[in-house]
Amino acid sequence: MRLYSILPFIAASFSCGTLAEDHAPGISPDAALARLKAGNARFVAGELSHPNQGPARRTKLSEGQRPFAIILGCSDSRTPPEVIFDQGLGDLFVVRSAGNVVDDVALGSIEYAVEHLGSSLIVVLGHENCGAVKATVDGGDLPGHLPAIAKAIRPAVKASAHHPGDPLDNAVLENARLEAQRVATSKPILQKLVEEGKVRVVAARYDLNTGRVVFLAPRKD
Known about the structure:
Helices cover 46% and strands 13% of the residues. It has 221 residues and is an alpha/beta fold. It has a single domain (3-216), classed as Beta-carbonic Anhydrase, Chain A, CATH 3.40.1050. A 5-stranded mixed β-sheet has the order 2-1-3-4-5, sandwiched between helices. Strand 1 (69-73), helix 4 and strand 2 form a beta-alpha-beta unit. Helix 6 packs across helix 7 and helix 7 packs across helix 8.
């Protein structure tokens, strides 16, 4: 779909009032989180149910979507959210970038999902041995547009520099927490919905070896 074909729809959505006023809640954040945890447990155990992937679901979704959660994840090919959470068509609204970094386009995409699709949970999903984070930890010159990614991740590397343990994994964890914090405090839309308890933002780390997703406690500033 070309961008200009959806612009009238987006413009109409914004003209109907402020986004916070238009919020249409789906399931609760706690219920959404429980659903993700159950799906990941099935994935880890090798007992996938592959829900919502048949022709009937595909046909139903042609009428509209109501994803219950938003996943801001890394572009790494080993970390597809629908697979590691054992979800199907229309279940997750997925935004991906190298190093699961947040920019204005990602924030706008998330805002759209919470406001107009009813998603109540936002998960910022980092992962073991992230290449983008490793490149930032290692330092040195990077070609092309890669420095923009490193610049976004560098605050996490700096904040975790004196933590005990593995520097790379510490930076992965801190990066997920920092990006989750940025999402949760994004004004004027997301911060308001988070403060009202309508939306929850959590950070998480995916283990490439076990397949397990661990949800992280928020940063302590």
